[in-house]
Amino acid sequence: MLLLAIEAATLHVSLALGDGARTVAELEIPPPTNSSDRLPQAVTELLAQAGKSLADLSGIVVGTGPGSLTGLRVAHATAKGLGYALRIPVLGISSLEALAFDCPVGPELIVPVVDARRGELYAGRFRRHGDRVEVLEAALALAAPALAEKLRSEGPLRVVGPSVDLVRPALDALQLPVSYDGPQLPRARALLALCPALPPFDAAAVFALEPRYVRAPESEWTLKPKKQKG
């Protein structure tokens, strides 16, 4: 069973191929490459690296974010297009959960953070138990000081992800027990490890899959009509 994983919640795009629980090939696309231009070619390159073709794929798993709206939309469009054309299932897994999975097992509450813009962070609350992740709070969007206050009584913390520096001052100001040792980016290989058993192909389910926006997409925010005065 060959799975393709695509993670594009940040500007660093990650792809992986998995044969069961084994990762057989990986490919990273660092910024500033435009994922919409590079992603389809990268999938072909990844398959060639493993000596495989599109016809060998049994399913696709894609990171659902929250994160970069453009990256998530391109990744989902690519995954859906391939899934429908190949008649294979497409599953979505939280990019924050993928970050939590790559943390070491321990007593700490794992808090992945990703820049949400407009002065806010996307964050989740997880615990790592062996080869699984316990989801305490899947995703929320709030300012760094509010996040720090929310975590004030949570005990030892492990804060990870690409936007640790945006919340560190607020956490340190409260003198919370925090470790910042952990993954900086969600990786496609973590999506493979978290992927459940594949369901049968269902075209409706493929097209129903959407990124986890948490709040209204940035484009909806910026394109809202201004209220008329008077």
Can you describe what's shown?
- There is one protein chain.
- It is built from eight helices and ten strands.
- It has helices at residues 35-49, 69-86, 95-101, 144-150, 164-173, 188-194, 203-208, 218-222; strands at 2-7, 13-19, 22-29, 57-63, 90-93, 109-117, 120-129, 132-142, 157-160, 178-179.
- Helix 1 (35-49) crosses helix 2, helix 3 (95-101) packs across helix 6 (188-194) and helix 4 (144-150) crosses helix 5.
- The relative contact order is 0.19.
CATH fold-level assignment of the largest domain: Nucleotidyltransferase, domain 5
Overall CATH architecture of the largest domain? 2-Layer Sandwich
Order of helices and strands: EEEHEHEHEEEHEHEHHH
Number of domains: 2
End-to-end separation in angstroms reads 63 Å
* Share in helix: 25-40%
Shape: elongated
Layout of helices and strands:
Blueprint lengths: L1 E6 L5 E7 L2 E8 L5 H15 L7 E7 L5 H18 L3 E4 L1 H7 L7 E9 L2 E10 L2 E11 L1 H7 L6 E4 L3 H10 L4 E2 L8 H7 L8 H6 L9 H5 L8
Parallel strand pairs: 1-4, 4-5, 6-9, 9-10
Antiparallel strand pairs: 1-2, 2-3, 6-7, 7-8
Helix pairs in contact: 1-2, 3-6, 4-5
